[in-house]
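Course exercise 7: structure representation. Students receive a sequence record and must write out the corresponding structure in token form. The form below is the worked example handed out in class, using Ankyrin repeat domain 45 (168 residues). Read each field label carefully; the graders check that inputs and outputs are placed in the correct fields and that the protein name is recorded exactly as given.

STUDENT ID: A-19
EXERCISE PROTEIN: Ankyrin repeat domain 45
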Amino acid sequence: CSAARKYRGTREPQRGSDSNAGKGYTLLHCAAAWGQLNTLKTLVELEADIYATTFRGENARDIANRYKQTECAEFLDWAEAKQNLRNLISQIQATITDPEKVQGKLNKEDKTTSIKACQAKLDWLENTKEPNTQDFIDQKQQLEDIMLPIFTKLAAPRGQDPVVSKKT
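STUDENT ANSWER:
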């Protein structure tokens, strides 16, 4: 993999520097192709971009599947589910604390609910031992369900009280 050649002789990869190496193949793509699970785990821990795609539009999980590296594909599914939950938490926190986005649309209770929900998910991420892929997906769905009425308020024109349909 040309991404690996790029790093020969360096001590530690610089964050984000593996993007666009050799038609978009990153070290993550190469490790997935070669079935190097421990390398994948290290790269993900070092915050390698799990969403990076090659010139063919393939991410590392796609590469692992193509080369029948099942353990690597499963790990990358797990890492993506975890990252998706983290990204949602960050998005919510950024939105709730942005005065331009909120513009008087949320009351104190909505802001408190949002902050507490995010903190609960962060605590879950920190304290849960050995969560599986489905656990991350379930936690993300729970957070989305809590935030749906709040984001509906944010999406409504100012001064209008949005109608939120409840799931039955």
